[in-house]
């Protein structure tokens, strides 16, 4: 908020600047007569500007100073180094005096004394030094000086500052100066106490009403007080006495944060986003330009950045007044409080500026006019926040009364609606009961249809399995039947040989009869018959063996006599399935098996064999319908075990599937086969069987690269 002081001061300075004229060099000696009073160094000051900041005191002494006809010198914001010259004639009884420059915002100040053309040692002070390096423990710059009785002494003061250069200079004895300083300390202590009390009070209220506006206001009050403490020098003395960096930069940073918190508090307090959305954007723009000024400060252009900050604060304060007035016209009580508080503070700023230009007397009241204005402003805004509680209470009472009326009206409507609702519920209940009967009938029909479709899938699989078994059994049976007839002929020939031996007459020539039999044996080729009989018997045995193998595989596959889970070797189930499907495998399709030793798996063997049958049959179908098949196509069947799971992989080199088809293959009735070739339930049944065994099935497929089904089953279904 103190920024507004400095900005209005800057604006009015532009108006009065033309009226400030420097007369020709004029030497006016100031007379110190009474040691019980303070001598104000007024109307006796000459100045010299050093834009290059390069001249030494010896070079400046010989330069032409210009007399400044002002009670309190006001040199505005300048990057020049200012030299001040004045002469004091001590006609009092005191010799040990104190020279006070009551402007703590000055960055650097150096005092030189000239007596009888002799230059005395300088005293250099400023924010570049820690506070304890001061000659006197005081926020103002105080130089102890000695002026002999009835002697004149000329003082030169060099001043550099990025802030407003305003020089209320005074001279007095240590006792009078310190008494006067104690009065100022007490007044500022009262001001600081008010600020702290307001912060604590609003903090307590914020915990009670849970309104975030109080938090913004507390931060706002803190920076208002910190701004006054900074420009009065108390912040350097008490808050950061060992940090010259903060002392120098606080003249910008503290007003910067003061302006930002003012904007944030204004937005929250007046609810600008709700009441004036367009003007709300202007406040955000103000904050944005504040950060640009911060960037200018960081770049090193301190004087320019302070002028920018003050200009922004000036126009921002006027804009804030305009926003508050617009919202006030809409009937907002907080806006009225804000407008009054802000106007009072700006009036105090105008009084402060008029005092600086000596249009109003410089006294204790006018020197603390900003503190007075800020206290009044903070108090009024606290009243405004307290008034919001009353407004909230009134609104709450009105809303409760309105809610009661609405509640009674709702109660009446509910009674009426309950009667209508009961009628509608009864009507709807009757409709739902009828719908429920229809749905139950439909569900029953769907279950019957599903059962028929599953039976159809089983019959289709059974038909395929029966055809394969018939073909497999027919081959060895044909082999047996085709060997029976030649075996019978050979046996008949052997019977003939035996009969001839039985017909041998002992009374006749035995030798002749044996020779006849030998000739007959050669005629029928008895050696060939022996060999042929062995061959035919071997073929019949092989056919019987193959038939027995098929019957065993069929029994192992079906497991019709087993309805409970039991530990099973899945490799055996795969082998049995392949035996039954052997007749359906074309010559160009090669089945490659890599069946590793795996633990026994607790499962329903018949169901798991049905899974193998469906997946291998699908792989065969994918290879049979493949466009442009290779000379040799493959089905890879592998088994392995990992931890407490068994993994079965069935992979083909078929055409693969797209991602769209892959997402649907386990859906009931979905099939890629031609009409009449499948029911679309095969993989759905596979998925159901694997799920019941607490396993899972994964599909890896890519168009033109084939498909792999990976089944993972736990060793123990429990």
TrEMBL record:
Q: Which InterPro entries match?
A: 7TMR_DISM_rcpt_extracell_dom1, 7TMR_DISM_rcpt_extracell_dom2, HATPase_C_sf, HATPase_dom, His_kinase_dom, HisK_dim/P_sf, Sig_transdc_His_kin-like_C
The membrane spanning regions, by residue number, are 186-207, 214-234, 246-266, 278-298, 304-323, 335-354, 366-386
Q: What is its EC number?
A: 2.7.13.3
Supply the Pfam families for this chain.
7TMR-DISM_7TM (PF07695), 7TMR-DISMED2 (PF07696), HATPase_c (PF02518)
- State if Transmembrane is listed as a keyword: yes
Which positions make up the signal peptide? Answer: 1-21
Instruction: Provide the Histidine kinase domain boundaries.
Output: 468-717
Record keywords, A-Z: Coiled coil, Membrane, Signal, Transmembrane, Transmembrane helix
- A Gene Ontology molecular function term of the record: phosphorelay sensor kinase activity
Matching entries from SUPFAM superfamilies are given as:
ATPase domain of HSP90 chaperone/DNA topoisomerase II/histidine kinase (SSF55874), Homodimeric domain of signal transducing histidine kinase (SSF47384)
Chain coiled-coil ranges: 396-459
Q: Which major enzyme category is it?
A: transferase
Q: Reaction catalysed by this chain?
A: ATP + protein L-histidine = ADP + protein N-phospho-L-histidine
* PANTHER family referenced in this protein's UniProt entry, alphabetically: HISTIDINE KINASE (PTHR43065:SF50), SENSOR HISTIDINE KINASE (PTHR43065)
| Protein name in UniProt | histidine kinase
Native source species: Pedobacter cryoconitis
Q: What is the lineage of its organism?
A: Bacteria, Pseudomonadati, Bacteroidota, Sphingobacteriia, Sphingobacteriales
């Amino acid at each position: 908020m103190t920024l507004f002081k400095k900005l209005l001061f800057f604006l009015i300075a532009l108006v009065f600047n033309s009226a400030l004229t420097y007369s020709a060099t004029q030497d006016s000696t100031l007379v110190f007569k009474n040691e019980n009073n303070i001598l104000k160094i007024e109307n006796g000051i000459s100045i010299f500007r050093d834009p290059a900041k390069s001249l030494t005191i010896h070079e400046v002494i010989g330069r032409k100073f210009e007399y400044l006809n002002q009670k309190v010198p006001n040199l505005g914001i300048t990057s020049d180094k200012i030299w001040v010259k004045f002469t004091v004639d001590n006609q009092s009884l005191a010799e040990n005096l104190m020279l006070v420059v009551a402007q703590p915002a000055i960055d650097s100040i150096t005092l030189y004394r000239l007596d009888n053309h002799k230059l005395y040692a300088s005293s250099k002070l400023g924010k570049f030094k820690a506070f304890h390096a001061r000659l006197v423990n005081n926020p103002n710059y105080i130089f102890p000086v000695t002026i002999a009785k009835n002697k004149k002494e000329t003082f030169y003061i060099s001043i550099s500052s990025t802030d407003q250069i305003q020089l209320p200079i005074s001279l007095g004895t240590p006792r009078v100066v310190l008494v006067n300083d104690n009065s100022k300390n007490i007044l500022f202590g009262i001001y600081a106490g008010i600020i702290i009390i307001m912060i604590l009070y609003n903090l307590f209220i914020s915990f009670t009403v849970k309104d975030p506006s109080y938090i913004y206001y507390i931060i706002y009050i803190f920076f208002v007080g910190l701004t006054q403490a900074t420009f009065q020098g108390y912040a350097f003395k008490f808050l950061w006495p060992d940090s010259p960096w903060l002392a120098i930069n606080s003249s910008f940073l503290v007003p910067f944060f003061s302006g930002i918190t003012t904007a944030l508090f204004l937005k929250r307090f007046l609810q600008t986003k709700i009441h004036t959305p367009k003007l709300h954007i202007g406040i955000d723009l103000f904050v944005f330009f504040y950060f640009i000024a911060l960037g200018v400060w960081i770049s090193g252009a301190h004087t320019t950045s302070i002028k920018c900050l003050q200009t922004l604060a000036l126009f921002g304060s006027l804009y804030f007044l305009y926003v508050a007035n617009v919202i006030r016209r809409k009937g907002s009580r907080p806006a009225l409080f804000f407008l009054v508080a802000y106007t009072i503070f700006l009036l105090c700023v105008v009084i402060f500026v008029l005092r600086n230009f000596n249009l109003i007397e410089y006294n204790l009241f006018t020197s603390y006019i900003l503190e007075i204005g800020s206290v009044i402003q903070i108090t009024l805004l606290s009243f405004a926040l307290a008034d919001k509680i009353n407004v909230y209470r009134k609104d709450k009472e009105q809303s409760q009364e309105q809610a009661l009326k609405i509640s009674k009206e709702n109660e009446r409507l509910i009674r009426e609606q309950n009667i209508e609702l009961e009628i509608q519920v009864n009507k709807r209940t009757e409709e739902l009961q009828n719908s429920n009967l229809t749905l139950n009938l439909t569900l029953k029909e769907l279950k019957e249809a599903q059962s028929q479709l599953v039976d159809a899938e089983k019959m289709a699989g059974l038909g395929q399995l029966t055809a394969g078994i018939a073909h497999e059994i027919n081959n060895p049976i044909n082999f047996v039947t085709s060997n029976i007839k030649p075996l019978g002929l050979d046996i008949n020939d052997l019977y003939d040989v035996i009969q001839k031996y039985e017909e041998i007459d002992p009374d006749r020539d035995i030798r002749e009869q044996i020779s006849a039999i030998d000739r007959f044996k050669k005629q029928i080729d008895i050696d060939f018959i022996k060999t042929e009989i062995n061959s035919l018997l071997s073929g019949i045995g092989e056919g019987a063996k193959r038939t027995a193998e098929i019957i065993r595989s069929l029994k192992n596959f079906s497991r019709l006599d087993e309805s409970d889970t039991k530990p099973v070797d899945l490799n055996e189930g795969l082998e049995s399935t392949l035996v039954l499907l052997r007749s359906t495998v074309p010559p160009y399709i090669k089945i490659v098996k890599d069946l590793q030793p795996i633990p026994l798996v607790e499962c329903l063997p018949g169901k798991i064999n049905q899974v193998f049958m469906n997946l291998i049959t699908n792989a065969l179908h994918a290879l049979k319908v493949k466009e442009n098949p290779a000379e040799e196509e493959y089905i890879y069947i592998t088994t392995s075990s990992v931890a407490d799971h068994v993994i079965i992989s069935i992979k083909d080199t078929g055409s693969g599937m797209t991602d769209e088809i892959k997402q649907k293959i386990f859906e009931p009735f979905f099939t890629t086969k031609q009409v009449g070739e499948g029911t679309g339930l095969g993989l759905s049944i596979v998925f159901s069987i694997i799920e019941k065994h607490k396993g899972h099935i994964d599909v890896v497929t890519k168009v033109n690269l084939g498909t792999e089904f990976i089944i993972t089953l736990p060793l123990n279904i429990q």
